[in-house]
Amino acid sequence: MNASVAIQVLPMGQATKDVLAVVDQVVKYIQEQGLHYEVSAFETTLEGDYDQLMKVVTAVPKIAAEAGADSVMTYVKINYQSKGDALTIDEKTHKYQH
Predict the structure, then answer these.
(1) pLDDT band, residue 42 (cuts 50/70/90)
(2) Contact by Cβ (8 Å): 26, 67
(3) How many structural domains does the chain have?
(4) Is residue 97 one of the residues assigned to a domain?
(5) What is the span of the domain harbouring residue 59?
């Protein structure tokens, strides 16, 4: 695993109920990719191969649009390790879990 990504999808101009439906479809798509991921209140964090993660990042706004969003703001944070492995989600957060 040489990368991790945090992605936040914000469907614009949608009612709250509709926003949740769009986000649900995005998370479903992420689940189907077979990557390790963690959903939190503001974003979803994924880890794996950089190229595979970039395919997900590219697809997410389109998935949101297919789910009914007219406009989508997508915020992405990328951690890429050119040599060696990136820290895992668990390594970064385990001590803070309760």
Answers:
(1) very high
(2) yes
(3) 1
(4) no
(5) 3-82
